[in-house]
Amino acid sequence: MRYFAHLFAILGVIFIGLAACQTTKETSAPDGLDLRIQKALTTAGENRSELEGALASVAEEQRDGLRFLIAYMPDRDLTQLSGKYLLKNLQWAYKAKGTFSWCKQLPDSVFFNEVLPYASLNERRDDWREDFYERFAPLVSNTEDIREAIKIINHAIMEEVKVKYSTARPKPDQSPYESMDCGLASCTGLSVLLTDAFRAVGIPSRIAGTPNWTTKEGNHNWNEVMVDGQWYFTEYYPSEGLDQGWFLADAGQADPTSKAHWIYASSFKPAQAYFPLVWDEKIHYVHAENVTERYIHLYQQAQKHQQVEEAGKVQLQLVMFKRQGCSMGDDRVAVPVKVYAGKELIFEGKTADAQKDMNDYLTGFVAEGATVAIQYTDAQGKLRQVQQVMNENQTLRLYYQ
What we know:
single chain; alpha+beta; C8orf32 fold; Immunoglobulin-like; four-stranded antiparallel beta sheet; 40% helix; 21% strand; elongated
C-alpha cells in the first residue's frame, strides 16, 4: 500500500506540474490576447461567424497571426471583413515570410505588426496582397540584402503602379486601387501604396507623418522601413538613401511638447497615441507611436555635418514653372539647372516637377554675398541665365517658356 500511495503522490505532482505548464502557456499571451479575441468576436456581431470560421480553418502555422489580427482589428473591420479576406491576407504574408531571408529573421512581434496587417490607416480595405506579391517579389528575388530590396522597390513602384503625385486626386486617404484607378495620389495615398509594396515582400513598413508642421502650414505623410531592428524613413519619390529627404529639416523642428506638431508612426496594435487624420479628425482607431524625438535627433546630426560645409553660406532654393503666372501645384517642370559663382560650378540638379511634393525644391548653398549665375535651357532650346546676389536665404522662381 505504501508503494501505491507513494506512486500516486508522484503522479499527482507530475499532473499538477503539467497543468501548471499548460496554464502558463495559455495565459502568457501578450496583453491578454484571449480576452481581446473574445471581446472582438462579441463586437463583430453578425460577422462573428466569419471570424470564428477563419479561426477554425486557419493553418496551424498561421494561427498566431490570425489571432493577432482579430485581437487588434478596428471595430469597422470586425463587423465587415470576411474570413476569406483575412485568410488570403495571411496566406500571402506567410508566403513572403517563407521566401525572403529578411522576413524569415523577423521576431513575431515585428512580423505581426509591420508586415501582416492589411491596412495602414483608414483607407478602403482592398485585396492587394497577392497582386502586390506577384508584382514586386520577382524584382527582389535575386537579393538577400534588405537595403537593396528597399532600394529596388522604392525606384520601381511608380512605373509599376502608374501613380503620380497630384493634389487633384479624388481624396487624400485613397486605398491602393483607388490610387491606381485614377493614376493620382497625394502624399498619404502614395505612402499607402509604398508600405503595401514593402509589406508584400516581407519588408517591415509603416506610415509616418505630422498633422501640422511647425515651420509652415500643412501636413505630410511618408514611409518608414525597419532594417536590423532600426527604423529609417523613405518615401514614394526616394532620395539617394534612407533617412534622406527634403522634409527632414521640417520634421527635425517638430515640437515635442505639442501633439498637434508631433511626428507619428502608425501601428496596428494599440500604442501610446492615435494617428491624427486631418481629413477626418473624428477617427481615433488608427494607433501610433510618437517618434518626434528621433526626427529631431536625425536633423541635429545632419545639421552638425552641414555646419562645417555651409559656414558663411546661404541657402538657394529653385523652382521651375512652365511659364509666368503658373500655379505652385501642377505647373512645375523638371529641368536641369547649373549654378555658378564666376566660373566655379557651385551645384547642379533637376528642379522638382508636378509629381513631387510642393515643398520639394532644388536646393544648394552658396557663399553669403556672392553673385550667382543660374543657367538652364528653356523650351525653345535657348540657354537662359539668371543672376542673383545672395545676401540671404532665397527661393527663386524660374520659367521654362
